Structures are given as structure tokens and as C-alpha cells.
């Protein structure tokens, strides 16, 4: 057997060979997943089983592969907008199907010692809308007791009938969670879910802790100090907690944030690495050599990171000046039938944020935060705004364009400007819970502009892409 460290490095460097190329962003529909399932029908390595239908009648399947005695159930997208592990699971299937390479020994071990049941999209109705909840607006992961959603009933029936030894509950989480109270994003977080309020550890939960220790050790080579532990408080309605109680060793993997990876393609790779590492440790029983100590050393997730943090800006209001920090987050807004997104930013906190961090930061010491000017125009269509040189407008202190157009909601613009349609121009600089659009001046000269939470240095060249907004 290849030593683990060498295997991990080889897997890491060879990942591109197994990556499912048809999945390249998170906003895919079940139709694409079904295509990847259908192409495996008839392959003797698989058993493809329809296990039920979603509330809106979409089929839900599992793919079974492997012939070993240790049953493992893996499910993804029980929250419809949490698709990172769905992509990774098809990468894993591609890996298991390959042959005649340096990984033959490990894949043969996994397939001989385990039987894997992949449910690659438990909530297809939510995925259709790229939303957390299902078509009933039920959070499936809070429906393990009442079972009001058909998707919930499917998952419980799978656990009860298959009686898997291990379960992998695969999620995405808010990309701004930090590792403890540090500046490190919690790119991956693990949890051996608690089956009772006292968070006791029995033999079932112990195995989850041991498998997580091995996955974390591997990940530290690629994302040092960026692995967290999810809050251990028992949630009596949650599937993870209940499946642990029902006798299946349950491992929760949460995919968080990584700077420069908005589509989570690197985090997808880390999921691939983590799950392969876990499957190998189960197949060869090496996880049993692990203790609890390293699991409890993992810092719990916390919320100490904003997408963008501006420090020490001076604000003048009613003739009085003070300094403030601005914690800005950028929310994804779906459009084009939830296949694409744009950012709508918001000032999430305001005041002394000295204990917090930003994935991006700007020290505004010596700069004054001011309301940008608004240019009023009368146009019949938004495309006419292309007549402007937006960079020159920003340099002159204009951040808003006030139009006579009517809006049907908020949308994005590729201009670095804040387009006002049904709204009046603001009378003061933005503050807590506003969209962060303003200018930063020094000695009365405009030096920087912030539009929709994105900073533009007006002394440099215009960027190639903007993140404006229209409302």
C-alpha cells in the first residue's frame, strides 16, 4: 500500500484527471445530475435505484457501487443551494471507475471492503431554485422527526433499510465562518454529530471522531489552520444528530469559504480528498488507531470575518466627526433561472470592529467617508448608460446615476455605479444595513470609490470587471 502522505500528494496532483468536467459551477439543475446517473445505468459496477420522488415529482436515486461488508451512505444537497459535495461525489465516482494507474490498490481496497450508496441530490426542487429549502419551504435537515417532506421520508427509509455503518452528511455553510476567533476562513469544517443534549460519546460517535481526525490531518497539508469544528450542540430535529442516535456513525462535512474561489472548485477538490481519505481509512480500518484529542483541538467555527472590512474611516455628520469601521458582506442574488448570480452588498456592522477581520481589508485612516454625488439622467433604456465614461464619473465623485426608468427589482450592472430607478438619491453617507456605496476623500480630493461593497482605487487603471448594482 502507498504510504498515506505520498498517496495524498499524488491524489492532490492528479485530481484534474478525475474531475467531472460537466460540473463547473454550483448552480446546476437535476437534469445534469440525471445525465451523469443515466450514463452509469448498465455498468456492472453500479446498481442505480430510484428511491422516491421529491414534492414536485422529481426522481431521487442512489448509485450503489462496491461489494464490501461495510455499508456507507453519502448524501448531498439536502439543502438545494449546497452543491459543492455533489460535484465532488461525481469526481469520486470517476476516480473509482479509473484503472491502471498508481491508485489501483486503494480503489480496489475501497470497492472490496465497502459498499457505497451515493444520493447525489436529495433536494432537487431546492436545487432547481438554488435555495436551501424544498418546494414546501421545509428545511429537510430539520424534519427528521415530523417527516413532512417526501425527501425526509426517503432519507430516513434509506437509513432504516440499508442500516449503513457510516453516513456522510455533506453540506455547504456560510463562507464567512472563521476558525475560532482568528482571521482564517473555515474552509472545511467537520462534526461528529451529538446524539443527545449531553454530547456523550458512545462507540458509534467515537468512530466519527476517529475518521475526522484522519481527514483533518490530511487537510492540514493543503489548508493549514483553515479547518474548523461545527458547533456540537444537539439539534433534536436534525438528521445528522438522529442518524447518529439510530446507530449509523455520522460524519458531517461543511464546505465554507476560500478567498478567490467563489464557485468552490478548490473546496470541491478538498471534499474529494477528504472523502477518499475517509473511505480508505474505513476500508483498511486504520481510523481505529486514532484518538479523540486532535478532534477536540479543532477550533469551533465562529463569525469573525467579513467579506470586506474598512477600518478607521472618518465620518462627519451634523458638524461632528468620528471614526468608524464598516463590516461589509456580499450576498449572492440568483438570476437567469437561478443559474447565475450577482452580488448585493450590505453594511452588516458599523462601529468598533477591531476584533474582526476581512477577507479583504482597507485601512481608511486619514480618509473621509462621504456620500457620492448623483447624476440625474432621462433615458428610455438602461443600455443608454453606456454613453458615460464611468471611471471619469467616479473620479469626479459620482457614484449614483438617478434615472427615470422603472425597476422590477434589484439587478446588477457591469458599470461601477449604483443605478437608482425607483429610489431617490441618498441624502447622507450610508450606514448600518445600507448598501455600501460612497467615496473616500483626502483633503477634499476623491481617492477611492466604493460601489456595492467593492473598492476602486481611482489612481490606478480601471479594472476589467465591475460589480455595480441597480435598484
Automatic annotation (TrEMBL):
Keyword Protease recorded: yes
One Pfam family this sequence matches: Peptidase_M14
InterPro entries the UniProt entry points to: Peptidase_M14 (IPR000834)
Cofactor (UniProt): Zn(2+)
Gene3D superfamilies: Zn peptidases
Keyword annotations of the record: Hydrolase, Metalloprotease, Protease, Zinc
Chain ranges of the Peptidase M14 domain: 26-372
Superkingdom field: Bacteria
Entry's family note: Belongs to the peptidase M14 family.
PANTHER family in UniProt: PROTEASE FAMILY M14 CARBOXYPEPTIDASE A,B (PTHR11705), SLL0236 PROTEIN (PTHR11705:SF143)
Protein name as catalogued: Peptidase M14
Organism: Dyadobacter subterraneus
